[in-house]
Amino acid sequence: MLVRNWMSKNLVSIAPDESMAKANRLLSDNHIGRLPVIDDRGNLVGIVSDRDLKRAGASDATSLDVHELAYLLTKVKVSDIMTANPLTIREYETIDEAAQLMLENKISGLPVENDLGKVVAVLTQNDIFLALVRLTGVQRGGAHLALNLPDKSGSIKGVCDLIREFDGRLISILTSYDQAPDGERKVYIRVANLSHEKMSELCPRICQLGDIIYLRENHTRIFDCQARPV
User: Whole-model pTM?
Assistant: First the structure.
């Protein structure tokens, strides 16, 4: 999943010598949380967020009246409050790499550069959330099956073959080693076209291949390994 397929492509930017007032207006009018700051040569020199604007305004708000504060917003330049030399990501890097970069640096958005180093978009947390939702297929409904399976060749195939035997349709498969027992891995499968009756027959057979952590159906119903509601 490449950044270029999920980034917000309607780029809204601002020049470093523009005012806080204009930055605030651009953020409000476009319903966004950050602006890449681009100089007259087309180079990225910083990023300014709604938090930067609020922080800068709040620092003087207690000592200024409303007219003085409005004047301040028109006089303080973006370059005075922006974060210089912000982190960026290239459009052909992946969503998970972007998410890790945001998480490690505690930021909620990244300017996206093309191969020439020019900013073409911004990738936000919301874009990553949307990618996650699409990746898991949760919007398609169905049942969500979480398993601990042996970490060996064919273990996932065995479960998938069983699901197909019951005419289930596989929507997504995700795997992870985080918090998995030694010699096992966690597997998350979203499947459609399985009735409650078929699930009741399927679960005991899956339990012969691994441990069911949970099975959620229609967002609320939860089953244990013997397909009993818990």
Answer: 0.80
Is residue 163 within 8 A of residue 191, CB to CB? The reply is yes
Mean pLDDT value across residues 70-81? 79
Number of other CB atoms surrounding residue 176 within 10 Å: 10
User: Residues with Cβ < 8 Å from 133, sequence gap 6 or more?
Assistant: 139
Tokens 């499947």 map to which residue?
191
The backbone region for 67, taken as left when phi is positive above 0, alpha when psi lies in -120 to 50, beta otherwise, is alpha
Could you read off the pLDDT of 7-19 as tens digits, one per residue?
988 899 999 999 9
- Residue 185 has a CB neighbour count (10 Å cut-off) of 19
- What residues pair up with 191 in beta bridges, in sequence order? 143, 170
Picking from 97, 79, 88, the residue whose alpha carbon sits closest to that of residue 117 is 88
- Tokens standing for 197? 């009756």
Residue 112 pairs with which residues in a beta bridge? Answer: 89, 121
Coil, helix or strand for 183? coil
Nearest Cα to Cα of residue 107 among 92, 118, 122: 122
- Give pLDDT tens digits for 10-59: 899 999 999 988 998 999 999 999 999 999 999 999 999 988 888 776 55
Determine the residue type at 198: K
Helix and strand totals (H; E) in the chain: 8, 11
Closest alpha carbon to 209 in 179, 184, 182: 184
Q: What is the mean pLDDT of the chain?
A: 88
Q: pLDDT band at residue 60, thresholds of 50, 70 and 90?
A: low
Per-residue model confidence as pLDDT tens digits over 115-126: 999 999 999 999
